[in-house]
Amino acid sequence: MTSKTYDGGMKSKAMLKLLAGLCLVAPLVGCTAVGAQEVRVYSGRHYNTDRQVFKRFSEKTGIKVRLIEATGISLVERLKREGSNSKADVILLVDAARINDAANAGLLQPAQSNKLKRNIPARYRDPSNRWFGLTRRVRSIIVNPKLIDPSTINSYDDLSKPELKGKLCLRKRKNVYNQSLVADQIVLKGQAGATAWVRSMVGNVKQPFFSGDTSLIRAVGQGKCGVGVVNHYYLARMQAGDNGKGDQELAKNVKLIMPNPAHVNVSAAGIATSAQNKREALKLIEFLSSPQGSQALAGPTHEYPLTSQGSSNVLKQYGRFTPDNVSISAIGANQKKAVQVMAQAGWR
Ligand SMILES: [Fe+2]
Question: Are 82 and 33 in contact (CB under 8 A)?
Answer without folding.
Answer: no
